[in-house]
């Protein structure tokens, strides 16, 4: 059955409880009278409560109502936040430079409102020193405690030790802040086109530097 309400001539009852365009209660009137008022106001007669006795109908611009409802549903879907779990892999004897790089990724994920699964990979004789991985996970959790918390405590899983960090900030909040920051950048770019160009060139240089820094870190993690 169609979820669309009956409107105008599709309504087949002798009388209806009529609601006016502004939500005012008109009362129970014959269907013919309700249709006459709809034509007079240049609106549609829409059945909004078919199971009531008599059915409740309202005078409205049905085309406009459908459009606004579709826009609200679209905005609701846009604002829906799906939980994402990112993963970051570390070695128990990671060097300070690689640790800072990996921690930077964890910080970025938590700021985005995502959970982060931290995996410590043990190899060879490292498997006999699980305390090294535990201490590393605790250190990382303390370093990012302003942004996230330990959602799942460190636990051994075969050759690996795993911990899950959850963000303090909800995904919807992170998305809203990201949109606000983007709008602010656009407004600033429009107001200061020269400054925007210089900033873009600076960002380009920083991005290249970041790629050069990340590459050895990823290689180290997989080595």
Low-confidence stretches: 199-223
Oligomer: single chain
- Overall shape: it is elongated
Distance between the termini: 59 Å
What is the CA-based Rg, rounded?
30 Å
Give me the number of helical elements: 6
Mean pLDDT metric: 82
Largest sheet: 4 strands, mixed
By secondary-structure content and strand pairing, the structural class works out as alpha/beta
Q: What share of residues is helical?
A: 40-55%
How many β strands by DSSP? 8
Strand order of the largest sheet: 2-1-4-3
The portion of residues forming beta strands comes to 15-25%
SSE series: EEHEEHEHEHEEHH
SSE topology sketch:
Layout: E1 15-19, E2 25-30, H1 31-40, E3 44-49, E4 56-60, H2 62-78, E5 85-90, H3 96-111, E6 115-121, H4 130-143, E7 148-157, E8 160-167, H5 171-191, H6 193-222
Parallel strand pairs: 1-4, 5-6
Antiparallel strand pairs: 1-2, 3-4, 6-8, 7-8
Helix pairs in contact: 3-6, 5-6
